[in-house]
Give the backbone structure.
Amino acid sequence: FGVSLDSLEQGGAVIVEDTLYTEAGVVRRTVGPLEYLYSQGRAIPFYLQLTLFPVGQSLDHGWRASFSLAEVIWPGIVVVLLLGLTIWAIFKAPRLSFLGGWFFLILAPTSSILPIRDIVFEHRMYLPLAAVLSAIVLGIFALLKSWEGAGKRESMQMTASQGLMVYRSDFAMWQDVIDKNPRHARAYHGMAHSFVMRDDWESAIPYLEKTIKLDPEYAFKPYYGK
């Protein structure tokens, strides 16, 4: 058997017919606006598939028309979702809605309700392709930015956690100061003071000596002389 779509002119109007050649004979059906719309429910997702995964390209696909909604229910859902997303974006993200509008409006003359002899032709995607590629680039950019932001948030959380660990005790706090600035006399004095407050003079003495070494004129608190 064979299949063809033919354009016939009747009374000044162009009629598109879907012709199926079988052993039993020839079956001809007129492709009206509704049937053509059904057919584009398959064609538009196919164009998108070729954009993302360019497999199955052909100079002339020779698709048959679709004559019922059941034939295009799943690809049709994809088209409806994309249209709905475009309408939503008009109110919520006008800049992004431009891409959806660009895609559908440029495809509309050949991929809506005006029957044309060829259900699918890849060159119809040349201009709408720019909108699809722009959306892909913007999506990748947003994803990378999100990952970068997540990395920064994680880093900030880690930093905050480390900060809390530093302030878990006065010893940890002063040790952190010493680690970051080993020549800071007051840091050693602070550590010594922490030991003195616990009556641990033996541990405090090395820090007091280090304080004096770094700053011989350091002003100690009066009770250190007792």
